Amino acid sequence: MKIQQLALPTIALGVAAILVFPKESVGFSTIGGSLNLSQRDVRVFNNFSDATANNNVTTDVNWPGQTGAPMSIWKACSEWASELHGGTGAGDPLQTVGSGGADFDITWQGIATGSGGTNDNIHSELQTGTNPSGVLAFTETPISTGWRIFYYDWWTWQDGPGNVTSGIDLQGVACHEYGHALGLGHSAVGGATMAASITGTGTGQRSLATDDMSGVQFVYGVKSAGKPHIASVDNQNPLTIMGSGFSATGNEVWFTNSTTSAPAGDPRIVVTGVASSGGGTSIVVNIPANAGLGDVLVKSSAGATGAFLSNAFPVDPTAAPLCAPPTVYCTAKVNSQLCVPVIGYVGNPTFTGSPFDVTGAEFLNKKFGLLFYGTQPFGAAFQGGHLCVKSPTKRTPPQSSGGSTTGDDCTGFYTVDFNALIQAGTNPNLISGAFVYCQWWSRDPLDFTGFGTSLSDALSFQICP
Ligand SMILES: [Zn+2]
User: What is the whole-number distance in angstroms between the Cα of residue 83 and the centre of ligand 1?
Assistant: First the structure.
Protein backbone atom coordinates (compact mmCIF):
# COMPACT_ATOMS: atom_id res chain seq x y z
CA MET A 1 0.00 0.00 0.00
CA LYS A 2 1.29 3.38 -0.98
CA ILE A 3 1.22 6.20 1.52
CA GLN A 4 1.45 9.73 0.24
CA GLN A 5 1.60 12.91 2.17
CA LEU A 6 -0.94 15.58 1.78
CA ALA A 7 0.50 19.03 2.07
CA LEU A 8 0.54 21.22 5.08
CA PRO A 9 -0.55 24.77 4.43
CA THR A 10 2.42 26.53 2.90
CA ILE A 11 5.39 27.08 5.14
CA ALA A 12 6.04 30.45 3.50
CA LEU A 13 2.90 31.70 5.17
CA GLY A 14 4.01 30.44 8.53
CA VAL A 15 1.04 28.22 8.94
CA ALA A 16 2.93 24.99 9.44
CA ALA A 17 5.05 26.62 12.10
CA ILE A 18 2.03 27.46 14.21
CA LEU A 19 0.34 24.15 13.70
CA VAL A 20 -0.81 23.24 17.18
CA PHE A 21 -1.92 19.95 18.49
CA PRO A 22 -5.24 20.38 20.09
CA LYS A 23 -6.14 21.03 23.65
CA GLU A 24 -9.77 20.70 22.71
CA SER A 25 -9.76 17.19 21.35
CA VAL A 26 -7.68 14.10 21.05
CA GLY A 27 -7.81 14.38 17.27
CA PHE A 28 -8.37 17.51 15.26
CA SER A 29 -6.24 20.64 15.38
CA THR A 30 -6.81 24.21 14.37
CA ILE A 31 -4.48 26.70 12.74
CA GLY A 32 -6.18 29.80 14.14
CA GLY A 33 -8.92 31.88 12.58
CA SER A 34 -11.94 31.13 10.47
CA LEU A 35 -13.45 32.25 7.19
CA ASN A 36 -15.54 35.41 7.22
CA LEU A 37 -19.15 35.04 6.19
CA SER A 38 -18.35 36.72 2.86
CA GLN A 39 -15.58 34.18 2.07
CA ARG A 40 -17.71 31.08 1.59
CA ASP A 41 -17.61 31.21 -2.19
CA VAL A 42 -15.92 28.25 -3.91
CA ARG A 43 -14.82 28.20 -7.55
CA VAL A 44 -12.77 25.97 -9.83
CA PHE A 45 -10.41 27.03 -12.59
CA ASN A 46 -10.78 23.85 -14.62
CA ASN A 47 -7.26 23.56 -16.01
CA PHE A 48 -6.84 19.93 -14.90
CA SER A 49 -4.73 18.30 -17.56
CA ASP A 50 -5.53 14.63 -16.98
CA ALA A 51 -8.42 13.34 -19.05
CA THR A 52 -9.41 11.29 -16.01
CA ALA A 53 -9.98 14.49 -14.04
CA ASN A 54 -12.87 15.39 -16.31
CA ASN A 55 -14.25 12.13 -17.65
CA ASN A 56 -17.31 11.97 -15.43
CA VAL A 57 -19.92 13.36 -17.81
CA THR A 58 -22.97 12.16 -15.89
CA THR A 59 -25.04 15.06 -14.62
CA ASP A 60 -26.90 14.96 -11.33
CA VAL A 61 -29.91 17.04 -10.31
CA ASN A 62 -28.37 17.61 -6.89
CA TRP A 63 -25.32 19.30 -8.52
CA PRO A 64 -26.88 21.19 -11.42
CA GLY A 65 -24.74 22.57 -14.21
CA GLN A 66 -21.46 20.73 -13.49
CA THR A 67 -19.68 17.48 -14.30
CA GLY A 68 -16.04 16.36 -14.08
CA ALA A 69 -13.54 18.08 -11.79
CA PRO A 70 -15.83 21.00 -10.86
CA MET A 71 -18.60 18.64 -9.69
CA SER A 72 -16.06 16.57 -7.76
CA ILE A 73 -14.71 19.66 -5.95
CA TRP A 74 -18.20 21.12 -5.35
CA LYS A 75 -19.15 17.86 -3.60
CA ALA A 76 -15.86 17.83 -1.66
CA CYS A 77 -16.41 21.29 -0.17
CA SER A 78 -20.12 20.69 0.45
CA GLU A 79 -19.22 17.71 2.63
CA TRP A 80 -18.37 20.25 5.39
CA ALA A 81 -21.89 21.77 5.26
CA SER A 82 -24.45 22.09 8.02
CA GLU A 83 -26.66 19.35 6.57
CA LEU A 84 -27.07 17.00 3.61
CA HIS A 85 -26.88 18.90 0.32
CA GLY A 86 -30.31 19.29 -1.24
CA GLY A 87 -31.88 17.46 1.69
CA THR A 88 -30.59 14.07 0.62
CA GLY A 89 -26.87 14.53 -0.04
CA ALA A 90 -27.42 12.55 -3.24
CA GLY A 91 -25.01 12.42 -6.16
CA ASP A 92 -22.00 10.65 -4.70
CA PRO A 93 -22.13 6.87 -5.15
CA LEU A 94 -20.03 6.27 -2.02
CA GLN A 95 -21.67 8.53 0.58
CA THR A 96 -24.22 11.23 1.22
CA VAL A 97 -22.69 14.70 1.01
CA GLY A 98 -22.99 17.18 3.87
CA SER A 99 -21.79 15.70 7.15
CA GLY A 100 -20.30 18.72 8.93
CA GLY A 101 -23.21 19.63 11.18
CA ALA A 102 -21.73 23.07 11.91
CA ASP A 103 -22.81 26.62 11.04
CA PHE A 104 -20.77 26.31 7.89
CA ASP A 105 -22.19 26.24 4.37
CA ILE A 106 -20.43 27.09 1.15
CA THR A 107 -21.81 29.03 -1.77
CA TRP A 108 -20.81 27.28 -5.00
CA GLN A 109 -19.81 29.93 -7.52
CA GLY A 110 -18.93 27.84 -10.54
CA ILE A 111 -16.04 28.33 -12.90
CA ALA A 112 -13.28 30.96 -12.82
CA THR A 113 -11.07 31.99 -15.75
CA GLY A 114 -7.82 31.65 -13.78
CA SER A 115 -6.22 30.49 -10.54
CA GLY A 116 -6.53 33.93 -8.98
CA GLY A 117 -4.63 35.41 -6.06
CA THR A 118 -4.06 33.82 -2.67
CA ASN A 119 -7.48 34.82 -1.35
CA ASP A 120 -9.71 34.46 -4.42
CA ASN A 121 -11.10 31.10 -3.18
CA ILE A 122 -10.29 29.07 -6.31
CA HIS A 123 -9.20 25.45 -6.80
CA SER A 124 -6.93 24.69 -9.77
CA GLU A 125 -4.02 22.56 -10.95
CA LEU A 126 -0.44 23.76 -10.46
CA GLN A 127 1.39 22.82 -13.63
CA THR A 128 5.03 22.42 -12.63
CA GLY A 129 5.67 18.81 -13.60
CA THR A 130 7.04 18.12 -10.11
CA ASN A 131 5.94 16.56 -6.84
CA PRO A 132 8.03 18.28 -4.18
CA SER A 133 8.51 15.85 -1.30
CA GLY A 134 5.57 13.82 -2.47
CA VAL A 135 3.11 16.64 -1.95
CA LEU A 136 -0.26 16.13 -3.61
CA ALA A 137 -1.85 19.51 -3.08
CA PHE A 138 -1.70 22.52 -0.79
CA THR A 139 -3.78 25.34 0.60
CA GLU A 140 -2.65 28.94 0.91
CA THR A 141 -3.69 31.49 3.51
CA PRO A 142 -6.33 29.74 5.52
CA ILE A 143 -7.38 33.00 7.19
CA SER A 144 -10.54 35.07 7.44
CA THR A 145 -10.23 36.79 4.06
CA GLY A 146 -9.88 33.77 1.83
CA TRP A 147 -7.71 30.98 0.45
CA ARG A 148 -6.38 29.29 -2.70
CA ILE A 149 -5.88 25.59 -3.33
CA PHE A 150 -3.48 23.98 -5.85
CA TYR A 151 -3.19 20.37 -6.99
CA TYR A 152 0.19 19.27 -8.43
CA ASP A 153 -0.08 18.06 -12.02
CA TRP A 154 2.52 15.37 -11.28
CA TRP A 155 -0.27 13.08 -10.08
CA THR A 156 -3.00 11.47 -12.13
CA TRP A 157 -6.19 13.10 -10.86
CA GLN A 158 -9.48 11.20 -10.99
CA ASP A 159 -12.93 12.79 -10.76
CA GLY A 160 -14.72 9.58 -9.74
CA PRO A 161 -17.59 9.65 -9.04
CA GLY A 162 -17.40 6.01 -7.88
CA ASN A 163 -14.53 4.32 -6.09
CA VAL A 164 -11.18 5.46 -7.51
CA THR A 165 -8.75 2.56 -7.86
CA SER A 166 -5.80 4.23 -9.60
CA GLY A 167 -4.27 7.69 -9.53
CA ILE A 168 -5.52 10.13 -6.87
CA ASP A 169 -9.12 10.91 -5.94
CA LEU A 170 -9.65 14.62 -6.54
CA GLN A 171 -12.73 14.74 -4.33
CA GLY A 172 -11.02 13.16 -1.34
CA VAL A 173 -7.98 15.43 -1.55
CA ALA A 174 -10.17 18.50 -2.17
CA CYS A 175 -12.19 17.67 0.95
CA HIS A 176 -8.95 17.56 2.97
CA GLU A 177 -7.52 20.77 1.51
CA TYR A 178 -10.74 22.67 2.00
CA GLY A 179 -10.57 21.65 5.66
CA HIS A 180 -7.36 23.72 5.84
CA ALA A 181 -9.17 26.66 4.19
CA LEU A 182 -11.73 26.41 6.98
CA GLY A 183 -9.01 26.74 9.60
CA LEU A 184 -8.27 23.13 10.46
CA GLY A 185 -4.80 21.61 10.78
CA HIS A 186 -4.04 17.92 10.68
CA SER A 187 -5.78 15.38 12.84
CA ALA A 188 -4.10 12.71 14.92
CA VAL A 189 -6.95 10.34 14.10
CA GLY A 190 -5.96 7.84 11.43
CA GLY A 191 -8.45 7.68 8.59
CA ALA A 192 -9.91 11.12 9.34
CA THR A 193 -10.23 13.43 6.36
CA MET A 194 -7.77 15.78 8.08
CA ALA A 195 -5.20 13.06 8.82
CA ALA A 196 -1.80 14.10 7.44
CA SER A 197 -1.57 11.20 5.00
CA ILE A 198 -3.86 9.16 2.84
CA THR A 199 -3.85 5.52 2.03
CA GLY A 200 -4.58 4.23 -1.44
CA THR A 201 -6.16 6.78 -3.74
CA GLY A 202 -7.66 8.99 -1.02
CA THR A 203 -11.27 8.11 -1.73
CA GLY A 204 -11.79 7.54 2.00
CA GLN A 205 -11.05 11.23 2.66
CA ARG A 206 -14.26 12.24 0.86
CA SER A 207 -16.33 11.39 3.89
CA LEU A 208 -15.80 13.28 7.16
CA ALA A 209 -14.93 11.25 10.23
CA THR A 210 -16.50 12.11 13.58
CA ASP A 211 -13.27 13.90 14.49
CA ASP A 212 -13.47 16.12 11.38
CA MET A 213 -17.05 17.04 12.27
CA SER A 214 -15.90 17.93 15.79
CA GLY A 215 -13.25 20.14 14.22
CA VAL A 216 -15.55 22.16 11.96
CA GLN A 217 -18.08 22.44 14.79
CA PHE A 218 -15.32 23.72 17.10
CA VAL A 219 -14.39 26.49 14.66
CA TYR A 220 -17.86 27.49 13.41
CA GLY A 221 -20.19 26.28 16.15
CA VAL A 222 -22.58 23.37 16.12
CA LYS A 223 -25.42 23.95 13.65
CA SER A 224 -27.69 26.37 15.54
CA ALA A 225 -31.34 25.60 16.15
CA GLY A 226 -32.54 28.86 14.63
CA LYS A 227 -30.38 28.66 11.51
CA PRO A 228 -32.45 29.42 8.40
CA HIS A 229 -33.35 26.25 6.54
CA ILE A 230 -34.24 25.70 2.87
CA ALA A 231 -36.47 22.65 2.42
CA SER A 232 -37.36 23.01 -1.26
CA VAL A 233 -37.29 25.30 -4.29
CA ASP A 234 -39.63 25.19 -7.29
CA ASN A 235 -37.01 25.86 -10.02
CA GLN A 236 -39.25 28.52 -11.57
CA ASN A 237 -38.52 32.20 -12.16
CA PRO A 238 -39.52 33.94 -9.93
CA LEU A 239 -38.14 31.34 -7.58
CA THR A 240 -40.20 30.15 -4.61
CA ILE A 241 -38.02 29.04 -1.69
CA MET A 242 -39.78 27.09 1.06
CA GLY A 243 -38.25 26.53 4.46
CA SER A 244 -38.05 28.08 7.92
CA GLY A 245 -36.24 30.72 9.93
CA PHE A 246 -36.32 33.43 7.25
CA SER A 247 -36.65 37.01 8.51
CA ALA A 248 -39.87 38.90 7.75
CA THR A 249 -37.85 41.52 5.84
CA GLY A 250 -34.26 42.17 4.83
CA ASN A 251 -33.18 38.66 3.86
CA GLU A 252 -30.33 38.17 1.41
CA VAL A 253 -30.63 35.46 -1.25
CA TRP A 254 -27.28 34.22 -2.54
CA PHE A 255 -27.21 32.73 -6.02
CA THR A 256 -24.50 30.90 -7.94
CA ASN A 257 -22.83 32.99 -10.62
CA SER A 258 -23.67 31.01 -13.75
CA THR A 259 -21.11 32.78 -15.93
CA THR A 260 -17.39 31.96 -16.12
CA SER A 261 -16.16 34.69 -13.82
CA ALA A 262 -12.91 36.63 -13.58
CA PRO A 263 -10.71 35.40 -10.71
CA ALA A 264 -10.58 38.65 -8.75
CA GLY A 265 -13.48 39.99 -6.76
CA ASP A 266 -16.58 38.53 -5.17
CA PRO A 267 -18.39 36.27 -7.65
CA ARG A 268 -21.56 35.90 -5.58
CA ILE A 269 -24.83 37.25 -6.93
CA VAL A 270 -26.73 38.53 -3.90
CA VAL A 271 -30.28 39.85 -3.89
CA THR A 272 -30.84 42.06 -0.84
CA GLY A 273 -33.92 43.32 0.96
CA VAL A 274 -36.02 40.22 0.31
CA ALA A 275 -39.18 39.72 2.39
CA SER A 276 -40.69 36.40 3.43
CA SER A 277 -44.25 35.33 4.11
CA GLY A 278 -45.96 32.59 6.06
CA GLY A 279 -44.10 33.33 9.29
CA GLY A 280 -40.66 33.07 7.68
CA THR A 281 -41.40 29.93 5.67
CA SER A 282 -41.69 31.23 2.09
CA ILE A 283 -39.65 33.55 -0.11
CA VAL A 284 -40.41 34.52 -3.71
CA VAL A 285 -37.52 36.19 -5.54
CA ASN A 286 -36.67 37.01 -9.14
CA ILE A 287 -33.57 35.17 -10.33
CA PRO A 288 -31.05 37.79 -11.48
CA ALA A 289 -29.41 37.65 -14.89
CA ASN A 290 -26.31 35.40 -14.93
CA ALA A 291 -27.47 33.55 -11.82
CA GLY A 292 -29.29 30.48 -10.78
CA LEU A 293 -27.74 27.27 -12.05
CA GLY A 294 -26.09 25.98 -8.89
CA ASP A 295 -27.07 26.56 -5.27
CA VAL A 296 -29.20 29.12 -3.49
CA LEU A 297 -28.79 30.21 0.14
CA VAL A 298 -30.76 32.60 2.34
CA LYS A 299 -29.12 34.83 4.95
CA SER A 300 -31.62 36.21 7.42
CA SER A 301 -31.36 39.76 8.73
CA ALA A 302 -30.94 38.52 12.30
CA GLY A 303 -27.14 38.47 12.27
CA ALA A 304 -23.90 38.29 10.28
CA THR A 305 -22.44 34.89 11.13
CA GLY A 306 -22.94 31.43 9.73
CA ALA A 307 -25.69 30.87 12.28
CA PHE A 308 -27.88 33.14 10.15
CA LEU A 309 -26.99 31.66 6.75
CA SER A 310 -29.08 28.74 5.53
CA ASN A 311 -27.99 25.46 4.05
CA ALA A 312 -27.17 25.53 0.33
CA PHE A 313 -29.91 24.09 -1.86
CA PRO A 314 -29.56 23.14 -5.55
CA VAL A 315 -31.51 25.23 -8.02
CA ASP A 316 -31.88 24.70 -11.74
CA PRO A 317 -34.20 27.19 -13.43
CA THR A 318 -33.56 25.46 -16.76
CA ALA A 319 -35.12 22.21 -15.54
CA ALA A 320 -38.53 21.20 -16.77
CA PRO A 321 -41.26 21.49 -14.14
CA LEU A 322 -41.47 18.38 -12.01
CA CYS A 323 -45.18 18.00 -12.79
CA ALA A 324 -47.32 19.20 -15.66
CA PRO A 325 -49.69 22.13 -15.00
CA PRO A 326 -53.24 21.25 -13.91
CA THR A 327 -55.72 20.60 -16.74
CA VAL A 328 -59.45 21.28 -17.05
CA TYR A 329 -61.67 18.45 -18.34
CA CYS A 330 -65.34 17.37 -18.47
CA THR A 331 -68.39 19.62 -19.06
CA ALA A 332 -70.21 22.02 -16.73
CA LYS A 333 -73.99 22.18 -16.32
CA VAL A 334 -75.67 25.42 -17.40
CA ASN A 335 -77.34 27.01 -14.38
CA SER A 336 -80.69 28.75 -13.89
CA GLN A 337 -79.20 32.11 -14.83
CA LEU A 338 -77.84 30.62 -18.11
CA CYS A 339 -74.26 30.84 -16.82
CA VAL A 340 -71.67 28.08 -17.21
CA PRO A 341 -69.85 27.52 -13.89
CA VAL A 342 -66.11 27.23 -14.43
CA ILE A 343 -63.36 25.63 -12.35
CA GLY A 344 -59.90 27.25 -12.18
CA TYR A 345 -56.75 27.43 -10.10
CA VAL A 346 -54.00 29.74 -8.83
CA GLY A 347 -50.52 28.46 -7.89
CA ASN A 348 -48.93 25.03 -8.07
CA PRO A 349 -50.03 21.82 -6.35
CA THR A 350 -46.91 20.99 -4.38
CA PHE A 351 -46.54 18.70 -1.43
CA THR A 352 -44.54 21.26 0.54
CA GLY A 353 -45.51 24.41 -1.29
CA SER A 354 -47.31 27.71 -1.00
CA PRO A 355 -51.11 28.08 -1.45
CA PHE A 356 -52.73 26.30 -4.40
CA ASP A 357 -56.25 27.65 -4.73
CA VAL A 358 -58.88 25.69 -6.66
CA THR A 359 -61.54 28.21 -7.67
CA GLY A 360 -65.13 28.10 -8.93
CA ALA A 361 -66.63 31.08 -10.78
CA GLU A 362 -69.93 31.94 -12.56
CA PHE A 363 -71.96 30.30 -9.80
CA LEU A 364 -75.19 31.66 -8.37
CA ASN A 365 -74.63 34.24 -5.64
CA LYS A 366 -75.39 33.51 -2.00
CA LYS A 367 -75.51 29.72 -2.39
CA PHE A 368 -73.67 27.01 -0.54
CA GLY A 369 -71.30 24.85 -2.50
CA LEU A 370 -68.42 22.45 -2.02
CA LEU A 371 -65.55 20.85 -3.88
CA PHE A 372 -65.51 17.07 -4.15
CA TYR A 373 -62.40 15.20 -5.17
CA GLY A 374 -61.06 11.73 -5.76
CA THR A 375 -58.17 9.87 -7.33
CA GLN A 376 -59.82 8.87 -10.63
CA PRO A 377 -61.76 10.76 -13.32
CA PHE A 378 -65.28 9.82 -14.38
CA GLY A 379 -67.83 10.79 -17.00
CA ALA A 380 -71.48 9.91 -16.40
CA ALA A 381 -74.84 11.65 -16.40
CA PHE A 382 -75.55 13.13 -12.98
CA GLN A 383 -78.34 15.47 -11.80
CA GLY A 384 -78.94 16.79 -15.31
CA GLY A 385 -75.24 17.35 -15.90
CA HIS A 386 -72.00 15.38 -15.69
CA LEU A 387 -70.25 13.66 -12.82
CA CYS A 388 -66.54 14.04 -13.55
CA VAL A 389 -64.93 12.36 -10.52
CA LYS A 390 -65.19 8.66 -9.77
CA SER A 391 -66.40 7.48 -6.39
CA PRO A 392 -65.17 7.28 -3.67
CA THR A 393 -64.84 11.01 -3.24
CA LYS A 394 -64.15 13.39 -0.37
CA ARG A 395 -65.85 16.75 0.14
CA THR A 396 -64.59 20.07 1.45
CA PRO A 397 -66.83 21.84 4.02
CA PRO A 398 -69.71 23.78 2.40
CA GLN A 399 -69.01 27.46 1.84
CA SER A 400 -71.13 30.39 0.66
CA SER A 401 -70.57 31.69 -2.85
CA GLY A 402 -71.02 35.30 -1.70
CA GLY A 403 -71.37 37.75 -4.58
CA SER A 404 -74.31 40.16 -5.03
CA THR A 405 -76.41 40.60 -1.91
CA THR A 406 -79.74 41.09 -3.72
CA GLY A 407 -81.38 39.22 -6.58
CA ASP A 408 -80.00 36.23 -8.46
CA ASP A 409 -76.96 36.45 -10.73
CA CYS A 410 -73.70 34.65 -11.46
CA THR A 411 -71.37 36.57 -9.16
CA GLY A 412 -70.93 33.59 -6.85
CA PHE A 413 -67.36 32.42 -6.35
CA TYR A 414 -65.69 29.61 -4.39
CA THR A 415 -62.10 28.93 -3.44
CA VAL A 416 -60.28 26.29 -1.44
CA ASP A 417 -56.55 26.09 -0.70
CA PHE A 418 -55.81 22.56 -1.78
CA ASN A 419 -52.20 22.64 -0.56
CA ALA A 420 -53.54 23.36 2.92
CA LEU A 421 -55.60 20.17 2.58
CA ILE A 422 -52.51 18.27 1.47
CA GLN A 423 -50.39 19.59 4.30
CA ALA A 424 -53.08 18.93 6.89
CA GLY A 425 -52.13 15.31 6.37
CA THR A 426 -55.58 14.03 7.26
CA ASN A 427 -56.29 12.37 3.91
CA PRO A 428 -54.10 9.35 3.11
CA ASN A 429 -54.78 9.77 -0.62
CA LEU A 430 -53.12 13.18 -0.76
CA ILE A 431 -49.50 12.09 -1.06
CA SER A 432 -46.63 13.34 -3.18
CA GLY A 433 -47.02 12.16 -6.76
CA ALA A 434 -50.75 11.34 -6.46
CA PHE A 435 -53.23 12.47 -9.12
CA VAL A 436 -56.31 14.39 -7.98
CA TYR A 437 -59.61 15.01 -9.83
CA CYS A 438 -62.09 17.57 -8.49
CA GLN A 439 -65.35 19.36 -9.33
CA TRP A 440 -67.54 22.07 -7.75
CA TRP A 441 -71.13 21.28 -6.73
CA SER A 442 -73.50 24.08 -5.68
CA ARG A 443 -77.14 24.78 -4.81
CA ASP A 444 -79.36 26.18 -7.57
CA PRO A 445 -83.03 26.05 -6.46
CA LEU A 446 -84.38 27.14 -9.88
CA ASP A 447 -82.28 24.63 -11.81
CA PHE A 448 -84.13 23.76 -15.08
CA THR A 449 -83.51 20.05 -14.59
CA GLY A 450 -85.34 20.01 -11.26
CA PHE A 451 -82.40 18.65 -9.25
CA GLY A 452 -81.73 22.01 -7.56
CA THR A 453 -77.99 21.78 -8.18
CA SER A 454 -75.26 23.31 -10.26
CA LEU A 455 -72.02 21.64 -11.41
CA SER A 456 -68.74 23.04 -12.77
CA ASP A 457 -66.39 21.37 -15.17
CA ALA A 458 -63.48 19.52 -13.50
CA LEU A 459 -59.76 19.92 -12.77
CA SER A 460 -57.05 17.29 -12.67
CA PHE A 461 -53.56 17.73 -11.27
CA GLN A 462 -50.63 15.83 -9.81
CA ILE A 463 -49.33 16.63 -6.34
CA CYS A 464 -45.71 17.53 -7.01
CA PRO A 465 -42.90 16.66 -4.60
ZN1 LIG B 1 -3.11 18.77 4.86
Answer: 24
